[in-house]
From TrEMBL:
GO terms for molecular function: ATP binding; hydrolase activity; RNA binding; RNA helicase activity. The keyword Magnesium does not apply. The lineage of its organism: Eukaryota, Fungi, Dikarya, Ascomycota, Saccharomycotina. Residues 435-451 have a biased composition (Basic residues). Residues 407-451 are annotated as: Disordered. This is ATP-dependent RNA helicase DBP8. Residues 241-387 form the Helicase C-terminal domain.
Amino acid sequence: MTTFNSVGLPKWLCESLSSMKITTPTNIQKACIPEILKGRDCIGGAKTGSGKTIAFAGPMLAKWSEDPCGIFGVVLTPTRELAMQIADQFAALGSGVNLKCSLIIGGESMIEQANKIKENPHFVVATPGRLAHIIMEHPDDVRGLRRVKFLVLDEADRLLTDSFTDHLTTCFEALPHPSKRQTLLFTATVTDSVRSLKEKPVAEGRQPVFVHELDKVDDVVIPKSLNLSFLLTPFLVKEATLHNILINEDFKDSTAIVFVNRSENAEILRRVLRHLEIRVTSLHSEMPQSERTNSLHRFRAGAARVLVATDLASRGLDIPTVELVINFDIPRDPDDFIHRVGRTARAGRAGDALSFITPNDLSRILAIEERIDRKMEEYKKVTDNGLIKNSLKIASKAKIEAKMEMEREGFGERKRLQKKRLQDQLGHNVQSSKQKSKKNLNPKSKLKTKV
């Protein structure tokens, strides 16, 4: 039987894993750990819940324990919540060896975080935006990044999109050249942008990039233990349908994540379910960081049975108790669907994923089914009579109350002000540009300039 010791991890790390009840490496861990220990760059792809974090954290910690000096590794990930989870895992694995790991995310004091990096922790786990801002605002405090031995891009398919390009460029410029560090990319969906990196020229003396995609014995992105179903739902009764699902016999005791596409929808649903006496919390970008953290703690601890979230919660979060995922809104990208439903049926456990389909969602559903190579089954246990009797009236009333509350409290006001400031700034820049162009076209202006 393969063990963590047989794939190359030291005794102290095997003992840490054993204390966490992790004793047998998964396929991605067996494939990637030995190659990373050999000094190879790595692209690791495997389905959700397959242990990707340990696949990169294990060999990084093993190498660090041989030469624990300076900032040894940087892990970049797209969301604050996933960064917090990874930092916790590093702390747990290194609890017996005085490991120092700093969490660098938005919503916290930038000065305090810059000071943390200045103290040269062993590992830095960060979101690209916050790390980039610290690099630009406090360049003297981040000199330790020049000696980094490892760079990890977790959820690499998401990081390698246009929305992160500028921040990643700033981060990379503060790190050693790729030939002087190991670069590890991990994701549940190996996209063309990720795969193309293996084609880049190899520096002299470097081995080719090691690539591990989905397990050959189980080459699917959705585990067989996950039951996929759909429910045809008119747009106007989606909230009532959700309530009916959460109180019916199949799911009345299930821990659930409900995914929506917008922060405003998440907040409305949280308030609706609270009025309907469902133990609920939420996670979206309009919440202060302290509330986001508390919300996740409540959900993990079981104080809330339902988490209503945007795609902030779709990637990497490991909450073993999640039994049900509901796509209240269908995502635009089929890969986002894969990440969402991957919050349940993890590590061989069973789970359910139920998608609400309105007439406008048909093309998205067909794209998702083609991507996952599976057909969803129709869920038929929500009846018109049951919906009218148990949920329709009270859910409609709760939605009206929720919207009135949000209006009174000025929900989204901060975001609207930021958008207005940005528009005003863009308008000012455009006006200045026009005036400058007009001046350059005026012969008298040119004459005055020459004089």
